[in-house]
Design goal:
The chain has 399 residues and is an alpha/beta fold. It has two domains: 3-245, Ribonuclease Z/Hydroxyacylglutathione hydrolase-like (Metallo-beta-lactamase, Chain A, 4-Layer Sandwich); 253-397, 3-Layer(aba) Sandwich (Rossmann fold). Helix content is 35%, strand content 24%. The chain has twelve helices and 24 strands. The protein has helices at 56-64, 82-85, 88-94, 106-113, 182-197, 201-214, 234-245, 263-277, 292-300, 318-330, 349-359, 377-398, and strands at residues 3-6, 9-11, 14-16, 21-22, 27-28, 33-35, 38-40, 46-48, 74-76, 99-103, 119-123, 128-130, 135-140, 150-154, 159-161, 220-221, 250-258, 281-286, 302-309, 311-312, 315-316, 336-343, 363-364, 369-372. A seven-stranded mixed β-sheet has the order 1-2-7-8-9-10-11, covered by helices on one side. A hairpin with a 4-residue loop joins β4 and β5. The longest helix is centred in the C-terminal third of the chain and has 22 residues, at 377-398. The chain is elongated and about 75 Å long. The N and C termini lie far apart (50 Å). It binds MU-OXO-diiron (FEO). MU-OXO-diiron is lined by residues 79, 81, 83-84, 145-146, 164, 224-225.
Amino acid sequence: MPIQIAPNVYWVGAVDWNVRNFHGYTFQTHRGTSFNSYLIVDDHITLVDTVMWGFEEQMFRRIAEVVDPARIEYVIANHGEPDHSGSIAAVMHRAPNATLVHSKRGSSSIGKYQTGGWLERIVGSGDTLSLGHKTLTFLEAAMLHWPDTMFTYVPEDRLLLPNDAFGQHIASAERFTDEIDQAVLWDEARKYYANILTPFSSLILKKVAEVQQLGLQMDTIAPSHGLVWRKNPMQIVEQYVQWASGDHQAARVLLVYETMWGSTETLARAIMEGIVQAGVQARLLPVPQTDHTTVMGEMLEAKGILVGSACHNRRPLLHISAIMEDLIGLKPVKKLGAAFGSYGWSSGAVQILEKGLQEAGIEVAQPALATTWRPDGSDWGQAVAFGRAFGEKVKAAVR
Ligand code: FEO
């Protein structure tokens, strides 16, 4: 069923209840997702974004409940990834006279994924398109999260259609953020930001400032995944600013580690005790038992990150190495970190982890803790002290 999100603007997207591993990489979509497409019924009927290829029939069914899809005159492609542009060819086939509208950089991405020789219009920031009673205003939003990304704004409805920004991976029968459990909503919004948008934090701050300067008012923010923000939609913008600035971070430490014979795990528990003694919260996440998406979601709001590993072939174990690769790519802001681990015949793992923290832009707050074989009472005490010292540094840094 199409859902009206503003006068004569309908959600006509698709829900994917099954997907758990999105984009074919490590993003675990624990609650599925949706691909949101919006139909604007005006003198010139317009579709803003399409849906993932394979889901076009869901979209067409919803469009057809409002208008004949053949009447679509404009298709706005805010971003070229196939989860939003994958059904452009199917739409253009049904509406062969429609014009495809995208950013200049969209010519590369959309042009490579979709080739059709359609009518096209390239737009940039500040360009407008009159649909009759409503106007579309375009705002380029490069790297939020692709170079081709743009936002579409409808001033008459104070409606922002920002594509991937402000989304959540949630499959649901509800369409608005105020209709679902708020803990679920924010858990998914946090994981979404942490795993997709963290590397672009400085650009987010600039884009929000630009939007504020332009004086764009928003009653509704309708992203391309998950639910639509209609009650106090600025709450997600304000939250993005906090996440992007790093200023929200709690006096909390995330300990993420991989153990072999249990020694690194013993150290992790001792370190956690020390952190708690310092009056700081601790989250202990073993890998591979915990997936990357959850780890990065927890990482976002923790001021401190401790990374631990046993040593194998003079290197950290594989799953924690992959976590480190993720951190290096995401480059979280304003974090403190340190490494720890146990080794037997050969050392080297903690040094590699420490180097990884530096490469991720995380300030190494204290030297790594490395113990040998099975931790004894003295190692336990050393690890508690290590955790307490790190906790004190985290506490001081969030004051
Ligand atoms: Fe939801 Fe960048 O695709």
